[in-house]
Amino acid sequence: MGFAGIGIGVILLSSCTANFCSEADLASIAYPYEQGVTVYLGQTEFENLLNGTTDPDHGMTKAVIAQEMAWSDEAAALGLPRIAGKAFEGNDTVYKYIPYECLNNAKTEGEYQYDATVFAKFTSNKAAGLMSTIIKSATDSKFRLPSVYYFGMVDDIVLKDATAAAFQVTDFANIPADKIASIQVGSEANLTSWAVNPYDKVDPAPSDIQNDLVKEIGPEQSILRGFGRLKFAGTDENGKAKMWANFDATRNKIMKMAVESGFSQLGQYQVAGDDFQRVYVNQVNSKVNNIRSCIATRDGYFGHYGTASDWRVSMEKKDWGYAWSKGFLEGLLVYPVSWLLDTFAYGMDPGLSGRGQIWALIFVTLIVRGLLILISFKSQTDNQKMQAIQPELAKIQAKYPNSNTNPTERQRLSQEQMALYRRHNIHPMRQLLILIVQFPVFICVWSGLQGASTLATGEVLNMSLSDTIQSILFNVDGLPSNLHGWWTALFLFILMATTQVFSMLLPRILAKRAAKKVAKTSANPAQDQQNRTMKWVAYGMMIFTIVMGFMLPAAMGVYWLIGGLISCVQTLITQLILSRKKARK
């Protein structure tokens, strides 16, 4: 019943700690996971693919681009944007196309012929998230998929909205021609203007990103990295960011253009239907709503989001007033924990490379545990006294060997035990009251560590502190190397579990040593039953702690590791003080 109560308490309290992510934060997090399907490249590379000069797919890419160019010519004649060719009118540097494969790519004379109404998958690396979640779910549900051209038009609208935001104008049409002409692909060695891509390589594979084989272009220069969130976030009637506002507006805009133009690739069954739209929204929400690392106490770019865990995204600065608006515990405990982490982390390592976060965790653990020691000093003293009087308690229990079956002996045993507690100024209920206080603190510290944006940024020996130890250990990609921090997480888990077990067993070990000095006069079933119960409670708590440490973020593992060491030192010091007091008496 006790363990069931603890489990229910964990669920209830963890559900009471709110998610700090704002609508703008959710949009920033969503884009790295769903970046669209269009690839942006230089003119020479585009023309080589179009002419089949450098086509690794033996004519497939050439056929795809040729088909997309034909569609684009038809669309342009109707006043619609192109999905292949120049990305911007008046810019001769940035070109685009959509890599994809069809279901019926029948081979004819060395080249592939395509039926563009039936496609199997988008093949760019950036579309991996779309294919593995949204497209797969919609296909499994037998829902109709939009046309390739529809996806391309969505990307075109997003690019133009993001470009307008990069040049700080309200509409793409207001950008001066010379600014449009200056936009680059991102593959140039020395950027002199805004670039489209977030990397110097056109469409890098996750392995290239993780092995640092490509140069990252930061949000201050990459249009899509800095403002791709506009694919999802718009504004409501009050001017506040609203998730899905722009996404819904884009769909409505394309549907209106499709009806007015009569374009063959945007017919009634080639735009996103309600079923597909619902799958899209549900899949993206299921990804971003599970992310809680949005407590940023200062402006900046945080995290390691996306299918390749490669994107830092802009987070809205959160203040204490925002925290109080989320709830009482959020303002009282959760936000202060994250604020302390930010303060120490930035103070130790402004670049948030990982080293500063470890020091921040150490200092925050010392502060939190120090305050808990002050609050629970009497309770901890009572606990140590309880361990110290075990020999006396054993003598009393030995006097009443049948107390588990004899009510009279049970009553006398209870009276003598209470008299012993009063003589040593021990209040058993005080420990229960302290636990009631400590439990919400534990949940709030957990929530503060999970929500801290600084802990979602940088890595410690390739291990992200915001990832759970479970997720890191289950990701065996890169073994036997430490590519994703597998060995770091394993070492941390072993240390954390060992420290927690030892900190819980240490008081029992000391009490058992003291109890050996007391001679047993006879068998005592009541005492033996109590000892067995206490032993199983201790084992149960150890198992609970280890399982929770396995499932919680790695930062919580560091917190428990340090906390376990503090508990061991506290137990030894308290035991030493009580032993000296007893010797003096």
Low-confidence stretches: 105-117
The largest β sheet comes out as: 3 strands, antiparallel
C-alpha Rg, in Å? 31 Å
Number of strands: 11
- Count of domains: 2
Strand content: 5-15%
What brief labels describe this structure?
22 helices, 585 residues, 2 domains, 3-stranded antiparallel β-sheet, mainly alpha, elongated, two-stranded antiparallel ribbon
Compact description:
The protein is mostly helical and 585 residues long. It has 22 helices and eleven strands.
Structure description:
The protein is mainly α. It has 2 domains: 2-21 and 314-584, no CATH class; 36-225 and 245-288, no CATH class. Helices cover 58% and strands 7% of the residues. The protein has helices spanning 2-16, 23-33, 43-51, 60-77, 128-140, 148-166, 177-182, 206-210, 223-227, 245-261, 274-288, 320-326, 328-348, 355-375, 377-388, 390-399, 407-423, 428-451, 469-474, 486-515, 525-551, 554-584; strands spanning 39-42, 85-86, 94-97, 100-102, 106-108, 111-113, 119-122, 233-235, 241-243, 300-305, 311-315. The chain has a 3-stranded antiparallel beta sheet with strand order 1-3-2. A two-stranded antiparallel ribbon has the order 4-7. A two-stranded antiparallel ribbon has the order 5-6. α2 (23-33) crosses α11 (274-288) and α20 runs antiparallel to α21 (525-551). The longest helix has 31 residues, at 554-584. The chain is elongated and about 100 Å long. The two termini are 41 Å apart. The model is unreliable at 105-117 (pLDDT under 50).
